[in-house]
Amino acid sequence: MSAIRVPASRMEKALAETGWRVMVPSGAGRKGGYVELRAGGRLPRECGDHTKPSTPPKGLVFPNNEELLSYVLGVKGEIEVGPASHTMARTVLYGTPPCDTASFRALDSALLKDMAEPGYAGKRGLLGVIGMACSRAGRWCFCTSVGLSPRSNIGADLMVYPDGDDLLVERVSDRLDGLWKRLEAGAAGADEKALRAVEGKFVPRVLNFVFEAEKLADALEKAFGSPYWKEFSERCVSCGICTFLCPTCHCFDITDVAKDELSGKRLRTWDTCQFPEFTGETSAHNPRKERWARQRQRVLHKFLYHPRNHGHMMCTGCGRCIRYCPVDINIAEGVMRLGGSK
Amino acid sequence: MRDYRSESARLREIVSGLLERGEVELVVAWTEGEDRPRTRETLIGKGREDLLRKVVWSPFCTTSTVTFLKKNKAALAGKRLGVVVKDCDLQALNVLLQEHFLKREDLVIIGVRCDGLAEADLFPRPEGAEVPITSDGGGVTVGKQRRAWEDSGFTTCLTCSYEDMKPDHVVGEYGRKKGKPEWGHLARLQALEPGKRREHYAALFESCIRCYACREVCPVCACVECAIDPGERAITPRTAPSVKACAPVWACRERSVSENAVYLLTRTMHMAGRCVRCGWCERACPVGLPLMEILDLSNDAVRRVYRYEVGRDPADPPFLASYAETDPDDKGAGH
Amino acid sequence: MTVETPTTGAGTGFEPRIVAFICNWCTYAAADLAGVSRLQMPPNTLNIRVMCSGRINPMLVIRAFSQGADGVLVSGCHMGDCHYITGNYYARRRLLTLKSVLTGIGIEPERFRVTWISAAEAQDYQRVITEIVENVKRLGPLTLFRDGRVVARETTGCAEG
Fold it and tell me: Is C120 helix (H, G, I), strand (E, B) or coil?
């Protein structure tokens, strides 16, 4: 059986029994993040653009400030390297909308596939994702244009479809089997038909930005030299909002920080292709000195390079970069203009 | 009652007149975006009827055209420009003129009389080609949706006192009494014990993700190279220590209370006598930090202790590049 | 720049670390005079000689605090006596604005002092240093930058270079 019907209270109880840390959308207005559910707290019963926090869940497994190693120089000149902590408390993310859920596929493809990055892999192994079907699209949402939908379960370990006081729970991977077994015991099974019936409630609304995914990569490749890039980014201020708030952006910078002459640490922090010094070379040459070149890189990485290499876009259509951009730069508008338009 | 459709039409007349007569090569103005009622700054040249048609002035012109000038300084150098400004933008423009960042003779300034701004995202996306946007003393109306000024997301506009600045062309008339700078939020914080205040500000510093949006959107944060950034210098084995010493790392990339504090405090000091309290940094902050709480610490000193009026006149000396013999001294513990 | 805990000091209690930026033409000479005159004062200060108080960038003060200083002193020439005519006037406006900001975020005013001490005023120098050390001792360590005392590798490289 891959789907069951349980009362929402049962999910709360089962999660509490596991003793895992449960992170839920803060839902505290316009700006916030995923926060820890306090003991006895109520799990969110619905999800949508109105509950989507401004900061994505990536920070849990890909923190903005991560210690990669520490070192101490001994009196005789020996160097002791401290082990990096690639761990965190066992955590379940609950109630992520499909755009945030799918972000883990994108992050995994970059940081786990081929060559696993230990800092990410360590924490990712301790994270379970319970996605939830999204019942309200926002003004900036465009998940249906990037191969997702308000009910897609990509990236989820369990997928939850709210149905009145009940939840239809679908098992997507075996990662949360411990929890699944607790839920499954004595629960009513849900067959494919019941699942599809509830799923049908989470249909895509008419979205403001729609583009054709299939031909996009080719169109963008041809548009590499387009003069539109300059117009697209003439008002860009080169801040890091679009990338720091992006659920899939994962560029980082590594800095050695000396505590004193004898000890220090190596840190990893978020970096963004929008900062001028991102591509700065030691020789002081900078191949992406201009803002339009940096914006082009952001768009093409998401819609051309990553799909070519990994078979899916590195954008989940969550709309955060559009919503929080201080100067109204709209990635969907740009993509539509450059050849993806329906 | 102000009707922004007719004021926008008047603005379009002025802009197209300037371009037609060849008084300016390019104009920086707000145009309607894809996501109305949001607006965006746009560079308009002669013959760009498509853009000219979209030129707009409304309380949703929340971005700063001066930031646009700052960001495109190199590309626009030596060109004669028209620039549409709100009162706070003009204030910021004056700061940049005082510092010789821009040349007054290169600019034709078109001032719009601003009664306050409103967050576009709080209003539903309007349908139809023409959307009536009006305002009065009490609030803003878009179609059928009305919000009070206090409820429109722009707290700094409520205490904005700038008016009757002298641009070259004027569009619109004030429809609302201007406020007074108000420091109530500071007074509440300053009433706390120093230890509690430190906790409050440490929490603020800790949440910063260092996206630098506050710095980048700021119309007067105009340094070509920010002291906080590593800088673009080639470092080779032969680079002299004296050259390296010119580019110290003031704040490293660590996201911690102390490093974030160095960034935010430095910015506050660099904004002393330059901050026009437009509040854009605070609104742009993606994690919702109350940045005015820290900027106002220097704003308060500049305006109340030193009686310095920021950006009133391009001929005024910049605050930190001037002094008075009567400036107060350190009173030791009792400052 | 790291600020070392003084190894000498009275008793076992908290020994504050004070960074003093002092002007070459006045306060530095006053400190010198205080030394040769054998005036007693606490050894908790790290004196940094600069050519003028006008050279003090607010970032130097902010950085000193973030690196673990419990107090900072900037001391220059009396108004009108600046070796460079007006350097201290600019410094006064800049540093006292900084003081408002630092006081605002909860750094007690006793921790950041701006004084004017001439080359002849060794006793004033002794008094100011004694006062600031005593005051900061009473206030305890500065807790705002609790994760402080961090130096970027590049900075150290510059200092060594």
Answer: coil
* Domain-located, residue C11: no
Give DSSP secondary structure letters for C29-76: HHHHHHHHTT----S-EEEEEES-GGG--HHHHHHHHHTT-SEEEEEE
B104: domain range? 2-171
Chain C CB contacts of A262 below 8 Å: none
Domain that holds residue C62: 18-160
Q: Return the half-sphere exposure (C-beta side, CA atoms, 13 A cut-off) of residue C17.
A: 17
Give bridge partners of residue B39 from the DSSP assignment: B32
Q: Structurally, how many domains does chain C consist of?
A: 1
- Which pLDDT score, from 0 to 100, does residue C7 have? 44
B118-166, pLDDT tens digit by residue?
999 899 888 877 778 999 999 999 988 999 999 998 989 998 988 877 8
The residues near B208 (Cβ < 8 Å, ≥ 6 apart) are B255, B260, B263, B264, B287, B289
pLDDT tens profile B50-71: 999 999 999 999 999 999 999 9
**Is residue B116 assigned to a domain?**
yes
User: A303: which DSSP letter?
Assistant: I
Query: Does residue B69 fall inside a structural domain?
Result: yes
The residues of B whose Cβ lies within 8 A of any Cβ of A are 33-35, 38-43, 63, 67-68, 71-72, 121, 125, 209-213, 215-217, 229-235, 252-256, 280, 283-288
Chain C residues close to A260, C-beta within 8 Å: 2, 149, 151
Residues of B in contact with A255 (CB under 8 A): 252-254
pLDDT of residue B149: 93
Crossing angle of helices C87-104/B257-270, nearest 10°? 130
Q: Are A6 and A186 in contact (CB under 8 A)?
A: no
Quote the CA–CA distance of A124 and A120 in Å, as a whole number. 6
Round to whole Å and give the CA distance between B209 and B60.
27
Report the DSSP pairing between strands A65-73 and A263-270: antiparallel
Q: Which of C101, C102, C135 to mutate to test the interface with B (most CBs of B within 10 A)?
A: C101
Residue B162 and residue B29 in one domain: yes
Query: What number is the average pLDDT over the span C118-147?
Result: 91
Distance CA A266, CA A254 (A): 7
Residue C153 has pLDDT above 70, yes or no: no
Q: Is residue B332 part of a domain?
A: no
Is residue B334 in a domain? no
Task: Write out pLDDT tens, residues B274-331.
Answer: 999 999 999 999 999 999 999 999 999 999 999 999 998 999 999 999 999 999 999 8
Contact call for B195 and C58, based on CB within 8 A: no
Q: Tell me how many domains chain B contains.
A: 2
- A55 and B283 within 8 Å at the Cβ level: the answer is no
* Residue C139 maps to a domain: yes
Q: What is the mean pLDDT of residues B68-92?
A: 95
Cβ atoms of B294 and B268 within 8 Å: the answer is yes
Tell how far CA A192 is from the center of its chain: 28
Is the per-residue pLDDT at C160 higher than 50? Answer: no
Q: Percentage of chain B surpassing pLDDT 90?
A: 72
Cβ-defined contact of C153 to A260 (cutoff 8 Å): no
Do B309 and B254 reside in the same domain of the chain? yes
- B320–C66: do the CB atoms touch at under 8 Å? no
- When mean pLDDT is compared across B99-103, C40-44, C153-157, the lowest value belongs to C153-157
**DSSP strand pairing (A65-73 vs A34-36):** unpaired
Q: Are A316 and A106 in contact (CB under 8 A)?
A: yes
